[in-house]
Structure formats: structure tokens, C-alpha cells
Structure of Putative S-adenosyl-L-methionine-dependent methyltransferase:
Amino acid sequence: MDSPRRIGSISINLFYLFLLLSSNLLTLFISTTFYSSSSLNPTRNIAMIIDAANATQLPLDTANFKGTSDISPEFLAFTSPKQLPFGMNSNFDSDKLYPPVGKACTLFPNELNRYMSYKVNESCPDDELLAQKLLLKGCEPLPRRRCRPAAPPEYVEPHPIPESFWSTPSDSSVVWTAYTCKNYSCLISRKHNQKGFDDCKDCFDLGGREKARWTESKSRGSIDFGIDEVLKVKKHGTIRIGLDIGGGVGTFAVRMRERNITIITTSMNLNGPFNSFIASRGVVPMYISISQRLPFFDNTLDIVHSMHVLSNWLPTTLMHFLFFDIYRVLRPGGLFWLDHFFCKGEQLEEVYIPLLESIGFNKVKWVVGRKLDRGIELQEIYLSALLEKPLTNSW
């Protein structure tokens, strides 16, 4: 006859077996029910993933923000610190990611709210002008969005290289909403037909002045340096990559590409589709303002060029920071081509020569000429300079 102790042991074992079977059946029921109800609904799945991700976010510190009660929930969702799924990361020296956004963004809550108001996973508003206004006010970088940008309804493929270098792209490659002109014919002819000022007003006419830019130096001592003249300063093949700051429609980059040199062109879209046009020509645009820190590592670029943009319209302190940023990204022996810098005659001696000399460049070429396009009474001058970061002891 079995003892009471053995009977009790069998009862416990049966109880545990029942629990095991019950839990497995319950798991099977939940998983099949969830799969059948959610796998056919990808939108719900995405929403569940987003909700789960949001649950791991930490609250945004808004103590220094202006008007935080009016800030868009999407802005807060993007900028709030994100907990890393695997905890502490030695590369970040943190267990969180802090998405970057321009300090000035929250100084303009109305514009920011409009920019960040959209339906997640759907189409973004057609708001290029608003985005650029925020960016130029210092909201740079702009916050990321979770929507699809406006695009041409019937996009036409660009011309193949090298045909694309000097061909006007199709009107169907651009969203024209933000611009006065609604096609390239208007942009090409606006120098003759449009009153008032527009940035780079004749740049889109590739058969006009653009065709002759930087092809050769006009004369000895001219402020118009030619590309081949500049490249001869360095050993052949050592100028390979670089940057053009405020490069209009990318003609400098195209000229350099024809010589197997890769140039990235920064440009804004000031009443014209400059970035789209640059890309259509087959060179790389970068949509950043003159205030943005250059997104390159130290001592990496062979050449930095800028024409007209770096001039006395910029605050002097901002320009000082910018010149040092150019020095930073140039490799030792790299060239800074300051092309048609303009200012008042007395400013050059009193302000800009001391400022440039404080950076640490060596002067390779330095030419000063009179700027007469706005009248001799303004006493404006041009400076074109080729400056070199020292090959040794540049630190």
C-alpha cells in the first residue's frame, strides 16, 4: 500500500504538469490570435512599434525653451533623449541618444509648430519656404520628420554624365511651389525680364557667363583666377576633393569634375531650385547655411573655394569662426581660394587683412581690384586670394 507521502508527491507532480500544459496552450492562443489580427494590418503593427519605442524615451528637458507649451508633440518626440536598447555605449559615453536640433528652433514656436505639424507615415506639407526660413533663422539642423517630402508628380530622369554638366534639366524634375519662376525658361531669362534683386540672377543660363567661369585667368594680375592656374600651385593629382561654399548652380564643381576632382557645393534655394539644379548636373549639393559648422572631419579636404558669399555683409565674428572652420577641414598643404571677396577699401586694411592673418594661412596669391558694379562712389574693392594651410606645424 502506497504511503501518504508518495501520494502527495504524485499530486504535486500532476499539478505542475497541469500548469505547464495550461501555460503552453495560453501562449499558443495568444500568439495565433495576435498574428491573425495584426499581421494583416501593417499600420497597426507600425503604431505598436512606435508606441513601444516611445515608452523607452525619457522626457525632454524644456527648462531653457521659450514657449514650450506651444511646441509640437512631434518636435518633442524627435528631440527627447532616446534610451539605447542595450544600455551604456562606450562610444557615446552614455546610455542615451540626444537627437541634434538648432538652438534657435524653439525661439520661433509658431513656425516650428507649423513645420512639425503633419500626419506620421503620410505626406509632408509642401513647405519648402517655411523650412528654409527656419533654417536661415538658426534652426539648423532642422528636426527630422516622419513623413514623405513633396516631389514632382511625373519626375523625369536626369541627363547622363557628361551631357548633364551643361544641359538644362527637365522642368518636371522640380517642385516649383516655392519660387517666383515656375520653369527653367523663366529662370534663364529673368536677368532680362525681372526687376529687382535675386541671388545669382543669371546663373541658370548655362550658355551665358557660367560657360566661361574659371576657364582661364583674364590677364596677369587679374582678380579672376583660372582653375588650371590654381591647380598648378600643387603637385599634379594632389588636389582631389574639396568644397565650394555658396556655389550657386554648381559650375565650379562641374569644372573640377571635368578634371577628375570631386567638389561638394553648399547652396540655399533663394528663389530658385539651386540644389535640384546642382544635383541634375551630376555633382553633389549640400543644403546648409553659411552659419552651419562644416560637416567634415579635421584635416581632410584638399581645397575650399568660395566666390562672393564670404564678404562684408557677414558679421565679423561669424566670419572669423568660419575662416577657422575652413582652416580646420583643410589638410596640411590644402588651399583656400577666396574668390572675389568684397568690402569697403578701408575695411580691408583695418578689419579683414588682420582677421585673415590671424588664422595661420600662407599667402600664395593675393590680388586686389576695384569693384564698380554698384558705382564708384561706394569705394568698394575685390580681393581674390589663394591661401595655403602650412604643410608643417599647422597646429
Observations:
- The chain has a mean pLDDT of 85.
- The first strand starts at residue 82 and ends at 83.
- The CA atoms of residues 111 and 133 lie 9 Å apart.
- Strands lie at 82-83, 96-97, 241-245, 262-266, 284-286, 301-307, 330-344, 362-371, 380-388.
